[in-house]
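Weekly sync, protein design subgroup
Attendees: M.S., D.O., the rotation student, P.L. (late)

Item 1: inverse folding check
M.S. brought a backbone from last month's batch and wanted to see whether the design step gives back something sensible before we order anything. D.O. pointed out we never logged the input encoding, so this time it goes straight into the notes. C-alpha cells as presented (192 positions):
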C-alpha cells in the first residue's frame, strides 16, 4: 500500500514530463506559482503575473552588463523559439534585472530588444527584487567596491499559461545546449 501511494505521489509530481530534455528539470509541486509585481522597462507600467496569464512564461534573472551567461542564454532562447515555429507565439520571456542601479529602463529596453520580440525587461525596487528572488530561490549579489561585480543564478523558470511551475531550464549558456529537446518541452507546455 505504501509503495502504491509513493508511486502515485511520484506520478503527480512528474506529470507528463517523464521525457524532458536532460537540461530540463521538472519542478511541478516544488516551486510556487508565478507571482510578482515589477515595472515593465519599456512602458514604465507596473505589471504582475496576471498580465502574462495564458502565455507560457519564462522567468530569467540577469543584467545587461553580463559578459557571457546572459547573452548566451537569451540568444539560445531566441533560437529555441525559432525551432518552436508557430507555438513560439505563446511564449513570453521575462528578463528581471538584478542590477537595477545600472540597468536603467531605457538601457534594459534596448538590451532585451536585441534578443527577440517575446522578451520583456523588468525592473523592481530592492524589496520587489529580493522578494521575487527569494520566492524562486534565486541567488544574486551586487558589489560596487572595490570593483563592480554582479553574480546570479542562471536557470530559466518555465510556467504554464495558468502560472503554475513546469520545469527549470539549466545550462543555456553552454556550448552545445539541447535546443531541440528544450523546444519540444516548451511546445508540450504551450499545447496543453
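Designed sequence read out in the meeting:
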Amino acid at each position: 500500500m505504501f509503495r502504491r501511494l509513493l508511486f502515485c505521489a511520484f506520478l503527480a509530481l512528474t506529470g507528463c514530463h517523464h521525457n524532458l530534455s536532460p537540461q530540463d528539470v521538472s519542478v511541478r509541486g516544488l516551486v510556487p506559482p508565478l507571482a510578482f509585481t515589477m515595472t515593465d522597462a519599456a512602458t514604465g507600467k507596473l505589471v504582475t503575473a496576471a498580465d502574462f496569464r495564458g502565455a507560457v512564461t519564462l522567468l530569467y534573472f540577469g543584467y545587461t552588463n553580463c559578459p557571457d551567461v546572459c547573452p548566451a542564454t537569451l540568444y539560445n532562447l531566441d533560437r529555441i523559439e525559432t525551432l518552436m515555429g508557430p507555438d513560439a507565439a505563446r511564449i513570453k520571456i521575462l528578463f528581471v534585472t538584478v542590477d537595477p542601479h545600472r540597468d536603467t529602463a531605457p538601457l534594459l529596453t534596448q538590451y532585451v530588444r536585441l534578443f527577440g520580440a517575446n522578451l520583456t525587461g523588468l525592473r523592481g525596487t530592492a524589496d520587489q527584487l529580493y522578494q521575487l528572488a527569494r520566492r524562486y530561490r534565486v541567488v544574486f549579489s551586487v558589489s560596487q567596491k572595490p570593483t563592480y561585480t554582479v553574480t546570479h543564478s542562471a536557470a530559466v523558470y518555465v510556467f504554464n499559461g495558468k502560472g503554475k511551475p513546469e520545469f527549470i531550464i539549466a545550462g543555456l549558456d553552454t556550448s552545445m545546449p539541447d535546443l531541440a529537446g528544450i523546444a519540444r518541452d516548451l511546445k508540450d507546455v504551450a499545447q496543453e
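Discussion: The mean pLDDT is 90. The longest strand covers residues 56-62.
Action: P.L. to compare against the previous round before Friday.
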